[in-house]
Design a protein that fits this description.
Length: 418
C-alpha cells in the first residue's frame, strides 16, 4: 500500500494565511456595515444636537460686533495698553471708521454691544457720527470730546477696548451676576441688577420639587403596574402613555381652566364645604408644580416600570420566609434593586424640568418664571443672542455637573451593591 500523502508545512501555512485573510475581510465588512447602519444616527446627532450646542457656546463668547464693523479701530485698541485715554492715532482711526460706518449704516451692532456695558452709548455713538466733521478741530481727541463728553472718559475707552477683543466673558459673567470694572477686575453687579443667580436657584428648586413629587407618585404606580397580570398592566400602561398623545400647550391650558378661581376644582371644594373662598391655584408656584408634575409623571413611571418588571418576586418571598417583615423585605431587598430606575427616572424628569418654558410661562406668575423664559426673552424680544446663549450655557454646565455627581454616586452605590 501507498502511504497517505502528508501536506507540507508550506501548504498548511498558505491555507492558514488564506483563512486569516478571509476572516479579516469578513470582520472588516461587518464593521463597515455597522458603521453604515449607525452613520445616519451620528449625522443626525451632529447636525441637530452637537452643532446647536457648539453654536450656543460660541455665541456666549462671541464679541464680533466692533471688530467686524471697525476692524482697524479694534486692532489699534487691542495694541493700546488701556491706561487712561488712548493716544491720538486711536482717536483718528476711530473717527475715520465712525464716519465710514455712518455712511454704510453698519453701526447698529457696535452701538448695541457698547450699550450692554454703558447704557447711553447708543445715543452718544450715533450723535457723534452725525456731528463728525471731515477735518478735526486741532486733534481728533479734542474733536470727539467736543462732540460728546463720553469720549473724554477713560471708562468709555476701557469698554471700547473690551469690545475690540474677538471673544468676551461679558455675557457669561452677566449670567452669574458678575461684571468687569474699569480696571478689568471681576466684581458683583449692583444688588438691583443681581437677578440671574436667583433665577437659576428658582429653576433648580422647581425641578427638584417636581422630581421628588413625581417619584412619590410614580413609584407606587409603577410597582402596581409591574405586579399586575400583563393584560391589565398593558391596559393601564396605555392610560399612562395617553398624555404623550396630547400637546403640552393643550394640557397646560386645561390646567389653567381647572385651577382658576371659578374653575371646577375650586367649585368642588366649595360645594364640599372644605373651603369658604376660592383658592389661588393658578398664576403662582402651586399651579406650576401641579401642571409640571402632570406632564412629567410618565417620564418617571416608565423607567421605574422597566426596572421593576425585571425583578423577580421570589426575592421578597424568600426574605419574608426567612423572618423579615414585609416592610423590611421591601426596604432591604426590593428597594435597592429599583435604584437604577429611580436614578434614571429622576434624572430624566429633572433635566426636562429645568428646561421647561411653556408651562411656567402660562401657569406661573412673575416670580415663577424659569431660566428658559429669559432665554426666550433675550432671543425673541431684545435680540441679545449672546445673553441668551450665556444663560443656556450656564444651565447646560450646571446640568452636566449634576449629572456627573449622579453618575459618581450611582457608580459608588453600584460597586457597593456588587
Amino acid at each position: 500500500m501507498t502511504a497517505p500523502t502528508v501536506p507540507r508545512d508550506s501548504s498548511l501555512q498558505a491555507s492558514s494565511g488564506g483563512l486569516k485573510a478571509e476572516l479579516r475581510r469578513t470582520q472588516r465588512r461587518r464593521k463597515l456595515e455597522a458603521v453604515a447602519l449607525v452613520a445616519p444616527l451620528f449625522l443626525f446627532l451632529a447636525v441637530f444636537f452637537l452643532a446647536p450646542i457648539a453654536a450656543m457656546l460660541f455665541r456666549s463668547l462671541d464679541n464680533s460686533e466692533l471688530p467686524s464693523a471697525m476692524p482697524r479701530t479694534a486692532e489699534v485698541l487691542r495694541a493700546w495698553d488701556g491706561a487712561g485715554l488712548p493716544p491720538e492715532p486711536v482717536f483718528a482711526t476711530f473717527a475715520s471708521e465712525l464716519a465710514a460706518g455712518q455712511k454704510a449704516r453698519n453701526l447698529a451692532g457696535v452701538a448695541k454691544r457698547l450699550t450692554y456695558e454703558l447704557p447711553n452709548m447708543r445715543s452718544a455713538l450715533f450723535a457723534t457720527a452725525r456731528a463728525l466733521p471731515e477735518q478735526p478741530d486741532g486733534t481728533w481727541q479734542k474733536t470727539l470730546t467736543g462732540a460728546n463728553a463720553v469720549w473724554g472718559e477713560p471708562a468709555t475707552w476701557a469698554v471700547m477696548r473690551r469690545a475690540a477683543a474677538p471673544f468676551t466673558p461679558l455675557y457669561l459673567l452677566a449670567a452669574v451676576d458678575r461684571e468687569m470694572d474699569a480696571n478689568g477686575n471681576i466684581v458683583s453687579v449692583a444688588p438691583d441688577r443681581a437677578i440671574y443667580v436667583d433665577i437659576f436657584i428658582r429653576t433648580f428648586w422647581i425641578a427638584i420639587v417636581v422630581t421628588v413629587v413625581c417619584l412619590f407618585l410614580g413609584y407606587p404606580l409603577a410597582y402596581k403596574l409591574a405586579s399586575l397580570p400583563p393584560r391589565i398592566a398593558n391596559l393601564l400602561m396605555i392610560l399612562v402613555l395617553l398624555p404623550f398623545w396630547t400637546s403640552i400647550l393643550v394640557r397646560t391650558g386645561a390646567w389653567v381652566v381647572l385651577l382658576q378661581r371659578e374653575g371646577p376644582i375650586n367649585e368642588t371644594l366649595q360645594t364640599l364645604g372644605l373651603i369658604t373662598e376660592p383658592l389661588q391655584l393658578v398664576y403662582n408656584r402651586v399651579g406650576v408644580y401641579v401642571a409640571m408634575v402632570h406632564i412629567l409623571l410618565p417620564f418617571m413611571i416608565l423607567p421605574l416600570y422597566s426596572v421593576m418588571k425585571g425583578i423577580s418576586p421570589a426575592y421578597v418571598r424568600a426574605a419574608t420566609s426567612l423572618g423579615a417583615t414585609p416592610f423590611t423585605a421591601f426596604r432591604r431587598v426590593y428597594l435597592p434593586q429599583t435604584v437604577p430606575g429611580i436614578g434614571a427616572g429622576g434624572l430624566l424628569v429633572f433635566i426636562l424640568g429645568v428646561g421647561y418654558y411653556i408651562t411656567p410661562a402660562l401657569v406661573g406668575g412673575a416670580g415663577d418664571q424659569m431660566v428658559s423664559y429669559f432665554v426666550a426673552f433675550f432671543t425673541n424680544q431684545t435680540i441679545n443672542w449672546g445673553m441668551a446663549a450665556a444663560l443656556g450655557s450656564v444651565l447646560l454646565v450646571a446640568t452636566l455637573v449634576l449629572y456627573w455627581i449622579y453618575a459618581k454616586l450611582v457608580g459608588v452605590d453600584g460597586m457597593k451593591m456588587g
